[in-house]
Amino acid sequence: MRTAPFSRVAMLATGLATALSLAGCTTDGPKSTPAPKAQVVANASLMLANGASAGTAELLQFPGGYRVHVDARGLTPGVHGIHLHTTGKCDAPGFTTAGGHLNPEGRQHGADNPAGAHMGDLTNLTVAADGTGALDFTLHGGADTTGPALFDADGTALVIHAAPDDYKTDPSGNSGARLACGVFVRQ
């Protein structure tokens, strides 16, 4: 029969007409908007006790809080504790001028401590065999409390320690000596 080719053409035409009519349709439902991007608000150049570069760190602000991004290099392979410290000063060799951990709420140290964690507590940094490591961490606390603590009169430092943080021992998680330090400079 000769109707078979015609019916296939008719079905294709009907399908095409339907697709074209639907292409112009809109819905009144919720529209997807892209998530707001984080904005870099401060940078730190990390250095070792001998003055060599140990990488960089950024503080990024997003609606509702802050995030730390670290790109480390020149470190010994393994797991290292990493923290925000109360004073924006990094005098070698021990970097003790950075003070203690940033802790405006007076909590104890560590995510595994029932009386912790404080604002300066970050997760451990894993450094590969080539001496590099990266870390992204959202800080504890909202933007209204975190910002003033980060950008107070004496500034904030980021310190990388020799040993891993055990996430519970007060005051520093048994993370050992301070290997690298950087002062955050507001943009």
Automatic annotation (TrEMBL):
Residues 55-183 form the Superoxide dismutase copper/zinc binding domain. Residues 1-19 form the signal peptide. Keywords: Signal. Pfam families: Sod_Cu. PROSITE patterns: PROKAR_LIPOPROTEIN. Coiled coil: none annotated. Belongs to the Cu-Zn superoxide dismutase family. This is Superoxide dismutase family protein. It comes from Novosphingobium pituita.
